[in-house]
Amino acid sequence: MKNDTLLFTNDFSESGFVFAPFDSEQKAILFPLENSEFITEKLFLDAFIDQEKTFFADEAAKENHIKLVDKTIKEIKKNDLKKVVVSRTEQLEITDFSLLAVYQKLLQNYTNAFVYVWFHPKVGLWLGATPETLLEIENSVFTTMSLAGTQLYKDTVDVVWKSKELNEQQLVTDFIENQLSGISSQLKIDKTETARAGSLLHLKTKVTGVLNQKSTLKTLVSALHPTPAVCGMPREKAKKFILENEYYKRSFYTGFLGEINIKSLKFKTQSSSLFVNLRCMNINKNNASIFIGGGITKDSNAAKEWEETVSKSNVMKRVL
After folding, report:
1. Which of 30, 37, 6, 1 is closest to 16 using CA atoms?
2. What is the reported pTM?
3. CB 3.0-4.6 Å disulfide test: which of 12, 97, 172, 183 passes with 217?
4. Where does the Chorismate-utilising enzyme C-terminal domain lie (predicted)?
């Protein structure tokens, strides 16, 4: 940006880069294309060994998260909720923070992710490496994905998934298919596969289609965000539960970011690429806020859900 004015997109018809919060009722920040400068730099990644480190869990945080998960499970069982994604945040004091070094570690550890650094003087510094595409669209042809389930990567992607993760993944896929069926055609749902993201594995299903002529990028974004992978089902009830019961405000965690309406004169196309803001952190002076969560269903176990968030938080802590 050429100045520090905070701008927002009105209807996703502009060209530029957007940074959107989890709460879809709030506006997405826009870096307009005409106000931006593009700088290209070659980064030479030093060999970085992801060393095993010991991190100690906060007992109060553990107790709070287990209480939240138990409350969520009870709410699901007595309600028509099928899934709710609940999350927490950890505060980590950092010394000798080097933005470039952390960015390089993220690039090296997450070769299949969208790795970013985002800063605005009126909002702050965010960075992360997200394995989840919200959508990619070129002219009217789009690609999205459902992503759910987590387990540690242990030298192979040939793993067995339990029914809880498989059912959770199917819920996300079914939601996406239902949301897109009325605004697109030629929907194709690929076979579900195991995808690696750093030291974690997830279930991933690719979905492609063609946006109808009467539909817009805003229509498509509204249909998908927030997905059940970061919110739950039914979406509005799950979102209401999250906003009322989590111990903090998500802000831009589980929102989305990326380029919109970038034109290519050479290929006569217009494309947008948006990514769900997962595996991210917010840096404020000598403090890093790390965000982690997991999908809760009626079959969830609170203690195991806590351990999953610990695994996810350790992944991000290792790059600091």
Report:
1. 30
2. 0.90
3. 12
4. 62-312
Contact between residue 112 and residue 196 where contact means Cβ atoms under 8 Å apart:
yes
Backbone angles phi, psi at 131, to 5 degrees: -90, 0
What is the Cα–Cα distance from 256 to 278, expressed in whole angstroms? 9
- Please identify which residue in the block is written with the tokens 């690609």: 143
- Reduced to 3 states (helix: H, G, I; strand: E, B; else coil), residue 78 is helix
Residue 50 confidence (pLDDT) above 70: no
Cα separation, 84 vs 294, in Å, equals: 8
pLDDT digits (tens, 9 = 90+) for 225-253: 999 889 999 999 999 999 999 999 999 99
Pairwise CA distance, residues 171 & 307, whole Å:
23
Q: Which two tokens stand for residue 211?
A: 């946006």
Q: What are the structure tokens assigned to 157, written together?
A: 């992607």
Q: Is 177 helix (H, G, I), strand (E, B) or coil?
A: helix
Class of domain 16-36+52-317: alpha beta
Distances (CA, A) of 27 to 10, 30, 126, 164: 8, 9, 17, 34
Contact indicator for 200, 151 with CB cutoff of 8 Å: yes
Distance CA 137, CA 139 (A): 6
Sign of the alpha-carbon torsion through 313, 314, 317, 319: negative
> How far, in whole angstroms, is CA 140 from its chain's centroid?
23
Confidence of residue 55 (pLDDT cuts 50, 70, 90): low
Where are the domains positioned within the chain? 16-36+52-317
Select from 13, 50, 47 the least CA-distant residue to 32.
Answer: 13
- Across 97-113, average pLDDT: 89
> What pLDDT does 238 receive?
96
Structure-token match 């959508």, residue found: 135
How far apart are the C-alpha atoms of 21 and 156, rounded to whole Å? 34
